[in-house]
Amino acid sequence: MDAARFTQHTPRWGMVIDLNRCVGCQTCTTACKHANDTLPGVQWRRVIDVELGTFPDVERFFMVTGCQHCAEPPCVPVCPTGATWQRADGLVVQDYDVCIGCAYCAVACPYQARTIAHDQRWYFGRETRQEAAVRHDERLGVAQKCTFCKERVDTGLAQGLRPGIDPAATPACAAACIASAIQFGDFNDPASHVSQLLAAPHFQLNAALGTDPQIKYLYTTPAVPGRAPAAGDLDEERMGDPANPLVGPRQTLWDWRAAMNWIFGGVGSGLAVAAWLAALVGAVPAASVPAMHVLAAAIMALGLFFVFLKIGRKLRFWRALARPQTSWMTREIYAVAAFYPAVLANLLWPSAWLALAGGVLALAFLFCQAKILHLARGVPAWRAPLVPWMILASGLFEGLGLLGLLVALGWRAGPPGAALPLAGLALAVVNALLWAAYRRGAQAAGIVPLARRVIERLAAPLHLAGHALAALAFAAALVHPPRALFVPRDRRYRGDRPRRGLEIHAHRARRLPAGLPPARGAAARLGRAGGAGAHRRRVRPARRARRGGGIAREPVRRSPPRTRGSTKPSIAHDPRFRGNGDLMQNFPSEHALRPRLRRHRPDRPLAWSGALRPAPGLRLTHRRAAAARARSRALRRRGRAAGCRPR
After folding, report:
1. Which of 113, 245, 593, 625 could bridge across to 620 with cysteines, CB 3.0–4.6 Å?
2. What is the largest CA-CA distance in the chain?
């Protein structure tokens, strides 16, 4: 074999490791650290010490692991920046100057071959001269892994050397192996020594995932024949032991900060979608959707803020926009970037189309989050096919629960409907069924025993707190709607007696129980002052009926009364100022400046204007409150100019 052969075709570099030859001396690990200058605790090449069987029939072997340089690497398409990419010769490499340290590639790797070091550490507690000479600051805060010593391979090819044959062109671990257990070469060349070694029985790690790793293991040779695995080699108890080296450590690269993105992102996007759908079916007024979308955007921004705290190179966050063609993380950023302008536009110019855009973009954001979690193959519990549907259903359920809470606290006007409780019950059932199916199919989906134990331990509390109690709350709201929580007491819907609400308001303004008559003498004083409509101007009957909902009476014009002990007329009964006779007939004089009722039709919410301050229990929108304050100031100025004072 000569060097010219490597220039005639595209090689596919890989390794063949003979488990019968490896003696566990860790020479490959030391050679890797020396060649690549890795930090303490960072090992690109590891040797796992595995014991099988039970005493006294025990077997022991050593397995060399690291980046498998898969033919279908799961870490490459998920990278949002393009820092992880695959060369034409199959080597999966890392660009440290582009990586932002989001750790998505590390979580997506099912071989635990990637690490992230955030702090500079020293082997002897302080920086030595040798460590200062080989310091790599570009690796801090970003993902790093084995590269098959691509610099040695490329330099050797440029010098006409043969990788796998000449030590200078061979990865350091293979060149230093004292037992020749690690062989490196070109799998695309049938005449290469690695291709010939594959004629013997061999296996690949996690081959069922379809990654086609390019490190292949020999377990039988003519000198040391292999055996079929026994029933006790991979039993539940052994594979559920955290101390078993074949189980591996728990994934900690995505900590609580990353979890906050799914918690707040699911609740916020679910709220936006639930509010939009509820407005479509009339469960909430369409006018409340912009404000609910603003709240959802704030919750989603909180989750994204925690993700920002998680990334290792924060000033490079903008590079996450580079891979929308493959990365669902990039697509999530684009979805939320389009969601915020739609929410702002809908807040300034409310429109059904803008509300539709906000709901669809929020749903797209939630779907992107579901795909991000599902494609993180390094966590076996997330590989199940039901995981995306569980994320979608739980996000909508959480958002609908928050929407129901907002509605119960008085976000809307009008009677509570049955659409929200029914939707909540349906989503509670769907989430419970999905979780039950996820538990039943956990083993068939490839979820390891240790993860299945965690799932079983969380099943009962989740069904109780997350499904049963939530369904019970929605059922209670369906059977007995909490009207006192849905709508403030003075704005409660009373279709049978529309005037009853005014009577309650009048008694509340006087701090009297409903049903009791006004204070003695108040009606007489108002009668002497000119009756119910004495302080109002004469308007056309049609206009008064239209303003008052058809129940206002034509006032009788009389002269204004004079305040006791004063020769100036009271502003409350001055004919030059407008009030409401229907309310004033039940009001004492000290409440004459209460807000007047513009209309009180039973099928419309009560609207107030001309108020110095709202009556107890009433709420005004910001726009109407500002208009009311402006009219109140004008009322005071006109009163002072006329020489009137309030009673």
Report:
1. 625
2. 123
Q: Who's near 613: CB < 8 A, 6+ residues apart?
A: 595, 632
341 by DSSP, 3-state: which? helix
Cα 486 to Cα 489: distance, rounded to the nearest angstrom:
9
| CA–CA distance, 324 with 79 (Å, rounded to integer) | 10
pLDDT digits (tens, 9 = 90+) for 311-367: 999 999 999 999 999 999 999 999 999 999 999 999 999 999 999 999 999 999 999
Decide the pairing of beta strands 13-18 and 215-218. Answer: parallel
pLDDT, residue 440, reads: 93
Alpha helices by DSSP H, listed for 375-418, are 387-408
- Residue 416: partners with Cβ closer than 8 Å, 6 or more residues away: 407, 477, 481, 482, 483, 486, 487
Q: Which residues contact 251 (CB under 8 A, 6 or more apart)?
A: 107, 112, 378, 379
Contacts of 114 (CB under 8 A, 6+ apart): 67, 75, 103, 105, 106, 143, 144, 145
Structure tokens at 558: 């009389």
Return the structure tokens found at 475: 């059922």
- Residue by residue, what is the 3-state secondary structure of 237-302? HHHCCCCCCCCCCCCCCCCHHHHHHHHHHHHHHHHHHHHHHHHHCCCCCHHHHHHHHHHHHHHHHH
- The whole-angstrom separation of Cα 104 and Cα 310 is 11
Burial of residue 422 (number of CB atoms within 10 Å: 0-12, 13-18, 19+)? middle
For residues 106 and 111, give the distance between their C-alpha atoms in angstroms, rounded to a whole number.
9
Cα separation, 139 vs 230, whole angstroms = 43
Pick the closest to residue 591 from 509, 528, 475, 517 (CA basis).
509
Peptide bond into 56 cis (omega under 30): yes
Are 24 and 47 contacting, i.e. CB atoms less than 8 angstroms apart?
yes
How many other CB atoms are found less than 10 A from the CB of residue 204? Answer: 16
3-state secondary structure of 388: helix
- Whole-angstrom distance, CA of residue 559 vs CA of residue 346: 51
Burial class of residue 643, CB neighbours in 10 A (0-12, 13-18, 19+): exposed
Q: Which of 524, 509, 407, 525 is nearest to 501 (CA)?
A: 509
Strands 596-599 and 215-218, by their bridges, are: unpaired
By the 8 A CB rule, do 486 and 412 touch? Answer: yes
pLDDT digits (tens, 9 = 90+) for 123-146: 998 989 988 998 999 999 999 999
* C-alpha to C-alpha distance for 217 and 200, rounded to whole angstroms: 10
pTM of the model: 0.73
Q: For residue 84, which phi and psi values (nearest 5 degrees)?
A: -100, 125
Q: By C-alpha distance, which of 559, 594, 560, 561 is closest to 580?
A: 594
Q: How far apart are CA 263 and CA 411, in angstroms?
A: 23
The CA–CA distances, whole Å, from 488 to 11, 46, 485, 497, 547 equal: 75, 66, 7, 17, 23
Closest by alpha carbon to 116, among 145, 87, 93? Answer: 145
| Identity of residue 32 | C
**Which residue from 553, 529, 631, 552 is spatially nearest to 598, judged by alpha carbons?**
552
Q: Using CA atoms, how far apart are residues 311 and 171, in angstroms rounded to an integer? A: 31
